[in-house]
From TrEMBL:
Keywords: Coiled coil, Ribonucleoprotein, Ribosomal protein. HAMAP family: Ribosomal_uL29 (MF_00374). It holds the Pfam family Ribosomal_L29. One of its GO terms (cellular component) is cytosolic large ribosomal subunit. SUPFAM superfamilies: Ribosomal protein L29 (L29p) (SSF46561). Residues 7-34 form a coiled coil. It comes from Mucuna pruriens. Belongs to the universal ribosomal protein uL29 family. The lineage of its organism: Eukaryota, Viridiplantae, Streptophyta, Embryophyta, Tracheophyta. One of its GO terms (biological process) is maturation of LSU-rRNA from tricistronic rRNA transcript (SSU-rRNA, 5.8S rRNA, LSU-rRNA). InterPro entries: Ribosomal_uL29, Ribosomal_uL29_euk, Ribosomal_uL29_sf. This is 60S ribosomal protein L35. One of its GO terms (molecular function) is mRNA binding.
Length: 194
């Protein structure tokens, strides 16, 4: 018996494959009987080929079944366990990229070092070392009197990735702005962008 070609098996339907499997198993049973009863040596050498053919047919059947299941579960939220990627036990228990989003505070440094995350290592380090600098000046004009009341408060501003020297310059600029507000309130509206 000639060996089966797997590419030919892939073109057959499941019913045809099951029929072929049944025939091969029957042939294997006959060959085993011949082996016990002391049959011809050419029959004994066929056992290996038939067993291999059975394995090939079973493999093609299972591959077709898996492919059909993958197609059925393609747009579903959850996959059956045997369709999920095997990988390793540690990788399977690792948090997903969306669960691993970066923590702003320095408390969770181990999250920063995690490999699978939405941001790259470089991006996370930049955001850690150069956090948002948030400055704004709130001015409220009193009903009576010409001097405005002012206070500093934090608001959302664009991120600046700069050195400590520039942060010091910012603090200087804020103190100058405060003195400007006291003496020249109109300059705040024209000269400063909040």
């Amino acid at each position: 018996m000639a060996r089966i070609k797997v590419y030919e098996l892939r073109n057959k339907t499941k019913a045809e494959l099951l029929n072929q499997l049944k025939d091969l198993k029957a042939e294997l049973a006959l060959l085993r009987v011949a082996k016990v009863t002391g049959g011809a040596p050419n029959k004994l050498s066929k056992i290996k080929v038939v067993r291999l053919s059975i394995a090939q047919v079973l493999t093609v059947i299972s591959q077709k079944q898996k492919a059909a299941l993958r197609e059925a579960y393609k747009n579903k939220k959850y996959l059956p366990l045997d369709l999920r990627p095997k990988k390793t036990r540690a990788i399977r228990r690792r948090l997903t990229k969306h669960q691993l989003c970066w923590c702003r505070a320095g408390a969770a440094q181990h999250i920063l070092r995690a490999k699978a995350s939405l941001k790259t290592e470089r991006e996370k380090k930049k955001e850690l070392y150069f956090p948002l600098r948030k400055y704004a000046i709130k001015v409220s004009m009193p009903a009576s009197g010409s001097i405005p009341i002012f206070s500093t408060r934090v608001v959302s501003m664009p991120a600046f990735r700069v050195s400590k020297m520039e942060c010091a310059k910012d603090m200087c600029a804020i103190s100058q702005a405060l003195s400007t507000i006291i003496w020249r309130p109109k300059n705040l509206l024209t000269g400063m962008v909040l």
